[in-house]
Structure formats: C-alpha cells, structure tokens
Design goal:
Keywords: Aminopeptidase, Hydrolase, Metal-binding, Metalloprotease, Protease, Signal, Zinc. This is Aminopeptidase N. Its cofactor is Zn(2+). Its EC number is 3.4.11.2. This protein has 866 residues and is of the alpha+beta class. It has 27 helices and 29 strands. Among the domains are: 83 residues, Immunoglobulin-like (Sandwich), CATH 2.60.40.1910; 122 residues. Strands 5-4-8-2-1-11-14-13 form an 8-stranded mixed sheet, with no helix packed on it. It has a 5-stranded mixed sheet with strand order 16-17-18-20-19. Helix 6 packs across helix 8 and helix 7 packs across helix 8.
Length: 866
C-alpha cells in the first residue's frame, strides 16, 4: 500500500496535532537530549514505557503504552475461497455465495469461527461431493461461529458453503489517516445520478476489510487460492485476482466473469472491481499486463503505467526471483480510500494517478511512477512473502518503499536515488518530532496505526543502511534467500535477519535490534581538528538514551588532501568517541558519512571554505545540496554567490532548484548578475519545476519589475509555470495581465485553480469573482481545500461588503461542521477565523463548532487558535 498525497497530508496533520495536543497537555519540549544520565545499550531489552521516576523528563514523542498485539493463532488453515457474487446497486449490497475449503491447522476441531462483518447470513452448509447438509451457526454481526457435523483432524479438509448478503454501508464508519475507510466494499455513484463520475464498485481489504464483503479468516498469516465469479451488467468490465477463465452472457442481460488465482495469498489481498473501464493492454514475457482506466484517460494510461514491463524485468533480475504471478493488472478507481493497494495481480490506485491530460504529464514528475514501482515490488514483499502480523508490517512496506529508490537509481541514476533518499528521510524526521516507535512494534492501539512514516520511510532508510553495510552482492543474495525460503508463506523479522546472517556469516542481531526493535534515531554532533598529520574526529551521540539506544554506527569518513579523497571506515559505538585518521597534511575537507547512508540527524562542524570545497568536489547530490543549504544564509558573500551561480548550471535539476531557492532575496554586490541568471533560468531551464521555482524566487525581490517575464509565462505549456506566474502576479499585478488571468477561470488544472484563488484573495473584489469561488468549490481536491482554497476564499471575502458574504460563510460553516476529513474541517475553520475579526457574530458559531467537534486532535488545534 502507498499513501496518496491525501494520506501523507493526513499523517503530517495527525503528527502536528499529536505534538500540539501533547504540548498543550504536558507543556514539555519535543526533544530531550542525553543530559539525562540513564543509559541503555543497543542490545538491551526495550525500555519500559511505564510511568518514569519524577527525575526523568519524558519526551513528548514517547507514545503511550498500548496493548500487545500478537500474531493471530492459527486454528484452521484457509485453503481455498470460491465466491459467486452480484450487486444490488440501489441498496449498495453484495449478494454472495462463498464456498470455503479449510482444515484444522494442528489440533482436531469441531467448530469454525469466521470473520464476517455486517452480513445477513442466510444459510451455512457442509459440502461433501454433490451433497450439502445444513450446519448450525451463531452470528453476532462480526463473527460467524459454525458448529461442524463432527470433529475434523489436520489431515481432513472440508468445505462449507455460506449464502449471505454484505451490507457495507450499515457498518460503523472507521478508518485512519493512511486508509480513510474500512468498510471493505465501496459503491461509487451507484444510481448514476452524479454526472461527474462513473458507476463503479471496488474493494479494499487491508487490513481486515475483506471480511466486510466475504466470510473468511481475515488475518495476514492465512493463505488461500481463490476463484471469484462476478455477475454485472453487460456494459461493465470486471477485474479480480488471477486470470479470467470464463465469461458467460446471461439471459437477463447480465454477464458473469470468473477470475481464478492458482497461487495462494492472504485474504486481505483479494479484490474485485467493476466499472466502465477502458483496458489498455501490454505484456511481459507472455503474461498479460493491463491498465484499467476511465475511457477519457486511455490515451495517457501508458504514459503513467508504461514502464511496468521494464520494472518487472528489473525487479525479477535484481531479486533473482521472477515475478511469480499469472498476470499483472492495474486499475484506477474513483474515491479510493488510500493511495494504492497491492492486491495480488490486480493493483488498485486512486483515480488521481492517471487523471492527467497530455499537457499536464510533463509536470507530473516521479510520484506516479514511484507508486507503480512500490505496488509492483509488493508482489514479492507482501504478496509472495507476507507479514505474519501487522506488528511486522515493515517487512511489507519498508521493502516496497525502498523499491522506489532502487527504481530511481536504475532508471534515472544515483542523483535521482539520492533525492528519493532525502525526501523520505525528511518525512520520517518530521513524524519523529511527535512520535518515535520501534519499526517492528508489538504494541499498538489498532492495526492502522502501523501505517505511518516509520513503517515506510524509516524502514526504507534502514534497508539502505543494511545494503551499504553488507554490500550489494550480499544484500540482494540475502533477499533472494529470504524470498526463496519463505515463498508463499508468512514471515517475521527474525527470518529476515537469519537470511542475512546465513548469507554473510555474521551475527547481525546488533543491527536488527537497534534499528528494527528500538525506537528513535541517532542525533550526532561531529567536530574535527588537525594535529600532527592526523585528524581527530570527535563524534557525540546526543539522543535521549533513556528511551533510545546508543547506536553502533559503521560509517565512512572521507578526507580530501591535494584534491584526492581517502575513505576511512570507522564504527561509532559510544556516546562520546574520538577517532584518529592519518593524513599527510591538513585536509581541505573532512566529511563524516560521506556516502549519506545514516538515518540520523547530524550536526557536522565545517567552515565556509570547507563547504565550498565540498560542493565543488561532491560525489553525489546530497553533498551538493547540503553545502547549498548550509551556506544559503550567506548568499551575499562573493564566494558563496559564485558557487550558487555555478550550481544553476548543474546537470541535476534538484541541485539547480536548490541554488535558485538559496538565491532568494539576494542582496550582495552581484545583484544585477544574479537577477539576470535567475531570469535566464526562469525563461529557459529545461526542467519545469526549476523554472517555476525561479519565477517564485524573482517575485521575492521587492521593488523589482519582472512583470514581462510573468506575463509571458502565462502562455507556457506547463501548468506549473503558469501557476507560478499567477502567484507572482498576485503580489505585483500588471494592467496587461489581469484580463489574461481572468481568462483562465475555467481551467481544469488544480495547480492553476489554486493559484487563481491566491491571486483573487489579494487582488479580487468583484461579485463575479465571489461567484467563481463558490462555483469552483466542487472542483477542488480535499488537500487543496485545506491548504489554500478555503483560507484564500475567506481572505477574498474580506475585500467585499459583509452583507454579500452569506453564501460563502454558510459554506465554510457547513464544511467545518460536516466534512468527513478532519483537515478539511480545519481548513474551513481557518477560513472562519480569518473572517471573525470583521464579523463578530461568527464567534458564537465558531464556539459551537468547537463544542461539537469530536476529534480530540482537531480540538487541540482549535484551542491554539483561540
């Protein structure tokens, strides 16, 4: 599974709100350094989170103690599932018959307990050959308990057939930031009354949503083969796991498609989808590779999914295990509850992954492609070998996360991979401000808690360190061993460690213990001095060692003498440690973690000259970026500005972008030359994102007229550049640009739409623009409603008379009260807060909204705004 942008925003917001709530509650800071004296080694037992002695400061990122969540006890083995289903679109029901083949796992059994949420169970029968016999059962709307006709041993498979109706909309609503719904089965526009989207039905099984649409043992340590027959209207296309083995027209105008998967997988990976899809066909080594999309996106489907066959080859070769499944399909559906889901052979994506015109595609970037790689890699890590419990979720998600770096490295080079590393490191560190958990955690409140930036981003970075430590050959050999030894079965972290130990011959408990089983990360301070042909490198671990370990950190330090690098391999093992590195003269640069492999916050002391040298001799993007970032506050210095101007021509676009950002508000002696360089980049850089950033940077120079550049950019083929130009003109509108901006009001681009809202918030004042805000509200994504559109709408309303604001205020109030997304409610509330000083009557409304809000995290945010 991969988060959508919506999910990422939700998680970031949750982290911010958790930090806010904790601060409000305890008044404590978010970081507690090693000034506390109690130490624990990386190899010790995890530190208890029971109430600490009064002398110990508990950091705000320490989560509460949650219940232990062990792997489910296997009473029966679920061997095979056969489903025959049809749909009642009007009532949004699934009418099904499930035939399950099971056998006792070890001990004899005369009772079967199945997960079945919100069903109407009609009959349960034992199937023996052609004969069926009614079985007694009890049902409490969550569990179906069947009394078997006799006791069965572990050598005796048996079949039960259950006739039922699934009613997902009658279930209590649930979900999380990562997976926003948990009812398993979703009908989209079931009556066809919404002209903006098609009729669809689709499922989402992770974590335990499959039991909302068929009876099963809904645990990840079960594996089943399956066959699903779907009866739908003849004009709809269907998709499920495995191969389409039959398609039959029925006398009532419907059609029954039967999909069969011969290799077993976990129940949460079962799926179905039906809708008016266009199917764009591809292939890989004789296996079908199909892309299911809305018909209007059939022409651009291959631009999004077209690298799939190459990915199949790359991952198969890299892992030494060929893609094992019968086919590979990918479907984009409307209103999906997560970013994407790795259903075996039939991955589901949210619609936004393909919702691009040919004009928008050049601005899309790497994100859709990385999501495709992520879900495909799950077909080895997650589908072929599956976590035995949600506590071990990183064995699925960390690998899928790391595949994004592997693909970028292979397809686009080392710099692109380093950019992935940087972005994901930052996302984990952002979450770590409000919580720090072990990667493999057996204590959590609910399954969905595991779907966080730890399981994804931190886990991927831990795998990168493991790869760097053992080397590429050993890393991929160990992964091959792990996959081969555990194929088509469930796994836990010890099996991964053993695969690496058997491959390398080294006891790696120290690595797995500190990185997988302990919380937190190193916080390092690194200094160095030169005395008598040696560098004294001083490394301090400053993290709170009461709750996190003192780490063992194998790391490379590079010294540069006479423009020649020398690598020194050291192992940090203590809280305070000094290393002596032999050199024949004072180095021009000493670079700690020169391979940028550590998952750590590092404060490394270097002079300006050393950082300038680092940029000019950098081996990778991350070293260049670090030099730019650390020197950006000194951009007026001639040597620094020369470095930044040189970086504007770097071969890698992200370096050029970083340099453009670092030149923002430049006030040095080379002002004219710098501005000319930025204008050149804004007009002609080959990367749209760099050009857009250059436009934004130019707009930050006060009292400078670049209106002609912005106005010219309004005609650019890139929506990203058009949006940047509108944002720039919002700060400094020109007479000849107003009509051209107004002419963009009907845009279908989300970026341009939000840029227009920003423009009107600063420059609009007409009733026509007010009506535009209201008219375009349904076209704005939930993310954009929170981030910009609703606050911009409120700011615009300050520019019109109070008596004309009624409809806008009512809309903000309605969203603040009723939106199912907590961040949309917050966005609307922010809008009301902007209006409140000029509309005192809103104070009572906002108080009522606060009083009726049930989300504790949102309430904490409201408290800060008062």
């Amino acid at each position: 599974m991969k988060y959508s942008l919506l999910g990422v925003l939700g998680l970031v917001l949750v982290c911010q709100l958790e930090a806010t709530a904790q601060t409000v509650k305890s008044g404590k800071s978010t970081t507690s350094k090693a000034a506390t004296h109690k130490k624990t080694s990386a190899g010790s037992e995890p530190v208890s989170t029971s109430p600490a002695p009064a002398t110990i400061v508990v950091p705000s990122w320490l989560p509460p103690t949650n219940p232990v969540q062990p792997a489910a006890t296997i009473v029966h083995d679920l061997l095979d599932t056969k489903l025959d289903v049809r749909f009642d679109w009007g009532r949004q029901w699934l009418l099904g018959t499930a035939t399950l083949t099971l056998r006792p796992h070890f001990y004899p059994q005369n009772q079967l307990v199945l997960d079945a949420k919100g069903f109407e169970v009609k009959t349960v029968r034992l199937v023996t050959g052609t004969k069926e016999k009614n079985l007694n059962f009890a049902y409490d709307k969550k569990k179906l308990t069947v009394t078997l006709d006799r006791q069965y041993s572990r050598t005796e498979p048996y079949q039960v057939r259950i006739q039922y109706t699934a009613k997902p909309n009658e279930l209590e609503a649930g979900g999380s930031a990562a997976i926003t719904g948990d009812k398993g089965l979703y009908f989209i526009n079931p009556l066809g009354t919404d002209k903006t989207k098609p009729r669809q039905v689709w499922t989402q099984g992770e974590t335990e949503g499959s039991s909302c649409w068929f009876p099963t043992i809904d645990k990840p340590n079960q594996r089943m083969t399956q066959e699903i027959s779907l009866t739908v209207e003849a004009n709809l296309k269907t998709l499920s796991n495995g191969l389409l083995i039959a398609s039959k027209k029925n006398n009532d105008g419907t059609r029954t498609d039967t999909w069969k998967q011969s290799l077993p997988h976990a129940p949460y990976l079962a799926m179905l989808a039906a809708g008016d899809f266009a199917v764009v066909s591809d292939s890989w080594r004789g296996k079908a590779v199909d892309y299911y999309v809305d018909p209007q996106f059939a022409g651009t489907a291959k631009a999004v999914f077209g690298n799939t066959p190459e990915m199949l080859t790359f991952f198969s070769q890299k892992l030494g295990v060929d893609f094992p499944w019968e086919k590979y399909s990918q479907v984009a559906v409307h209103d999906f509850v997560s970013g994407a889901m790795e259903n075996t052979t039939a991955v589901t994506f949210e619609q936004s992954i393909v919702q691009f015109t040919a004009r928008e595609l050049p601005d899309v970037g790497y994100d859709p492609e990385s999501t495709v790689a992520h879900e495909l890699f799950h077909h080895w890590f997650g589908d072929y070998v599956t976590t035995e419990s949600w506590a071990n979720l990183p064995l699925n998600e960390s690998f899928a996360d790391y595949s994004e770096l592997l693909w970028a490295e292979y397809k686009y080079g080392a710099d692109a991979a380093a950019l992935v590393q940087q972005e994901k490191m930052n996302r984990y560190l952002e979450e770590a401000q409000s919580k720090r958990e072990p990667l493999i955690r057996y204590q959590y409140a609910q399954n969905e808690d595991m779907f966080d930036r730890h399981s994804y981003d931190k886990g991927g970075r831990v795998l990168h360190m493991l790869r760097k430590y053992v080397g590429d050959d050993a890393f991929f050999t160990a992964l091959n061993r792990y996959l081969t030894q555990n194929k088509l079965s469930s796994t836990e972290v010890a099996k991964l460690r053993i695969a690496f130990e058997e491959t390398t011959g080294e006891d790696l408990m120290w690595f797995f213990d500190q990185w997988f089983l302990h919380r937190g990360h190193p916080e390092l301070k690194v200094t160095h001095s030169y005395i008598g042909n040696q560098v004294n490198l001083h490394v301090q671990q400053l993290q709170d060692s009461t709750f996190t370990p003192i780490y063992r950190l194998p790391v490379t330090v590079t010294t540069w003498v006479n423009n020649q690098p020398t690598d020194h391999r050291i192992v940090v093992t203590k809280a305070d440690q000094t290393f002596r590195l032999m050199v024949n003269q004072r180095p021009s640069l000493v670079k700690f973690d020169s391979e940028a492999q550590l998952l750590a916050q590092i404060e490394e002391e270097r002079s300006q000259d050393e950082l300038l040298y680092q940029f000019s001799h950098a081996r990778n993007y991350l070293q260049k970026y670090e030099a730019i970032d650390l020197l950006r506050t000194k951009n007026s210095d001639l040597a620094v500005s020369a470095m930044l101007r040189n970086a504007l021509d770097d071969k890698f676009w992200a370096v050029r972008q970083a340099a453009v950002q670092a030149l923002r508000r430049y006030k040095g002696a080379e002002g004219n030359a710098v501005r000319r360089e930025l204008q050149r980049v804004a007009a002609s850089d080959k990367n749209n994102q760099v050009r857009a950033t250059a436009i934004a940077t130019l707009s930050a120079f006060n009292n400078e007229d670049y209106g002609s550049i912005y106005t010219a950019a309004l005609s650019d083929s890139s929506y990203r550049i058009v949006s940047a130009a509108i944002q720039a003109l919002a700060k400094a509108p020109t007479p000849d640009s107003r009509d051209r901006i107004n002419a963009l009001q009907a845009t279908k681009s989300h970026e341009v739409l939000n840029a227009l809202s920003a423009y009107y918030s600063l420059n609009g004042n007409s009733i026509e623009q007010y009506q535009w805000f209201l008219r375009r509200l349904p076209d704005v994504s939930e993310v954009d409603l929170y981030q910009s559109y609703l606050p911009n709408f409120a700011t615009f309303m300050l520019r019109i008379p109070v008596v004309e604001r009624d409809k806008g205020v009512q809309k903000l109030e309605s969203l603040a009260r009723t939106s199912p997304r907590n961040y949309v409610r917050l966005g609307a509330y922010r809008g009301l807060n902007i209006l409140a000083p000029s509309m005192p009557m809103l104070k009572a409304t906002m108080q009522d909204i606060r009083n009726k809000e049930k989300d504790e995290q949102v309430k904490a945010y409201y408290a800060l705004m008062q």
